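Page 42, continued from yesterday. The earlier attempt failed because a stray header line got pasted into the input along with the sequence. Redoing it now with the clean sequence only.
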Amino acid sequence: MRFAWGPRPLSVMVPAMIVGAVVAGCGSSVADADAPRPTRDRTAPFSPFCTAVDANSAALRPLAGLAVRGSLPPQELTVAVDALRRTGADLVNAAPGDVRADAERVVASVNVQLDALVANGGDASAAGREPGVAAQRDSTDLVAANQRLSAYVSDNC
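This time it went through. C-alpha cells are written below.
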C-alpha cells in the first residue's frame, strides 16, 4: 500500500516503501506524503474507490517520515500499521473489477513491508533489508500493477 493517496491528484502505494520510508505511489515517496497536494479540477463524481484511496493516503501519513525520524514509538507504530492495513483492505474491496487484481497485488506487497517494519520495531532501514521486501524491489509484475493502478487513480479520482 502511497501510496500518497489523496483525491486530487491521488497516488497509489507502491513497494520500495520501507527502504526510503513507506512508499507512496504515483511516483511520489512516503517522504512526500505530507507535502501539500496540488489541486485539480475534478468533474467526475467521487466514487467509493476514490474515497478509499484518500483514506489510505491519510493512513500513510504517520509512517511518512520514518526514514528521517528513524522509528515511531511502539504504540504509534501499531496504530499506524493497523490503520494502513485496514484502509488497504478497504481500497481492495472498493476497487473496480478492471484494477482489482492490481490493487490486491500492491496492497499485498505493502502488507509484506508492514510485516517487516513491525518485525524490526519500526526501523525502516532494517525492514528494507528483509529478504521479502528486498525481493519486491525487483518485481516487474509489481511495478506494472502499481503503474496500472496509479494510472487508473489519476484518470478517475
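Notes: Residues 17-35+47-151 form one domain.
Reminder to self: strip header lines before submitting.
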